[in-house]
Amino acid sequence: MVDLLSLKVEFSPVGNCEKGSLGRRIHRYSNDIPTTSGTKSQIMMRLEKMVEESDIMHGAIRSVDFDEGVFGIAHSEIIAKEDMQQLFEHEELGIAVIHTCIWYMYVTLMRGTELCNRFNFTAASRINTTFITKNPTSVKNELVDRFMAAGDNTTPSLYFLPFNSGNGGHWVLVAMDLSRLMVYYLDSLSGDWSKYPSMKKTVDAAILKFRSKKNYRNRKDITWVRV
């Protein structure tokens, strides 16, 4: 959350914010902010106040350039100050917010390190319930292309897919380990992947097609685990 905010401050027309000063400015905005059980956390309230009182103009947007290391294909994302309210008000999160969080984690923690061999991300804008319903084969091939873009995948690594269920905008997270034929399912609500059978079918088919293209043996079935 803090990392995303330091990105947001860079919208300022008077110059970029140094990351080292972020903690000091959060502390400066902490005065007179109560901590009450059942309400927003104190850190969330500090961040909201800092963004609101910054010189970032409402309606200002920024184009964030994603290199191919993030999602396997280069593209741009538009993010605005108002998008932060999705976090502050616990509203439905848009794809731009989720993608920008992933981009910032990649740039600050992963790029140029061995973490790029262990963790990969799949664009939520390309794989979701709506697209699967319209053209499951195309979505399957999108996943296969993402797997192929990341190398041989012979060492254990995880592909993270933020998946929009299409049911009121609920998000789940699917983490795929191609070498071990394991898929980890994370959902803040009760139940498991059986709620989204088309998603599971598409993910399974993509993994098997990728392994076939790579001439890997499938010595066991794909195992799904709820985390």
The value of Rg in angstroms is: 20 Å
Structural class of the secondary elements? alpha/beta
**Unreliable runs, pLDDT <50, ≥5 residues?**
1-23, 33-38
How many beta-strand elements?
7
Helix residue percentage: 25-40%
SSE ordering: HHHEHEHHEHHEEEHE
| Rounded mean pLDDT score | 78
Distance between the ends: 22 Å
Strand order of the largest sheet: 3-4-5-6-7
How would you sum up the major sheet? Answer: 5 strands, mixed
Explain how this protein is built.
The chain has 227 residues and is of the alpha/beta class. It has 9 helices and 7 strands, in the order H-H-H-E-H-E-H-H-E-H-H-E-E-E-H-E. A 5-stranded mixed β-sheet has the order 3-4-5-6-7. A two-stranded antiparallel ribbon has the order 1-2. The protein starts with a helix and ends with a strand.
Short description:
The protein has 227 residues and is an alpha/beta fold.
